[in-house]
Amino acid sequence: MNRTFSIIKPDATKRNITGAINKIIEDNNLNIVAQKRIKLSKEKAEGFYVIHKDKPFFNDLIEYMTSGPVIVQVLEGENAVDKYRKIMGATNPENADDGTIRKKHALNIQENSVHGSDSNENAIIEINYFFNENEIISN
Ligand code: ATP
Ligand code: MG
Prior knowledge:
The chain is of the alpha+beta class and 139 residues long. It has helices at 10-14, 18-27, 42-48, 58-65, 80-88, 101-105, 120-130, and strands at 2-8, 31-38, 70-77, 114-116. It has a four-stranded antiparallel beta sheet. Adenosine-5'-triphosphate binds at residues 52, 57, 61, 91, 109-110, 112, 115-116, 118.
């Protein structure tokens, strides 16, 4: 069992499809062991995406991620990081496989509905950026 960190992004909360996304997560045997709805501040979003700070899309990304509520989550299951990356699909929904969250729900390369950690190391860092251990309740 391991954990990954997930964000359901503003394009999805706006369209009222957080339940549809959670159903895909749960149907794939990942347990949602922590979850809260928040509005990211500019500072919090910039800290989260600091790795992309020199990319041309950075300012747009921060504006988008702070444009509405997000759902931050901790997912638990076997190979949670890799499994969730597979369930999410490619960053650009045009390249995402059938059956993935982004294929089904993403609007474009920016408004792509979900975030998932890309390594176990980053999962731990990202979970700790949003949650205290006592907020995470395993099944
Ligand atoms: P995430 O980190 O959100 O899980 P990812 O790992 O698939 O997504 P990254 O390369 O880490 O993709 O990019 C972070 C986010 O920045 C993307 O999910 C998307 O919202 C946005 N983004 C990435 N590339 C572009 C781009 N070329 N144009 C606009 N936005 C982009
Ligand atoms: Mg990423």
